[in-house]
# Entry
Amino acid sequence: MKQYLLVIFAIATTNLVKAQEMLTAKEAVEIALKNNYDILIATNQAKISEKNV
# Structure
């Protein structure tokens, strides 16, 4: 009985691991830069400054 549970658990965990999407290093950096609030704030402040001139 314990062996069956172990096999079921192993199969279930393997499927969860496969569900994750693989990223390249370039994609990971692009996502990080896109979601970085400091960069977004600086970009918005630069746009505001340009319009105020």
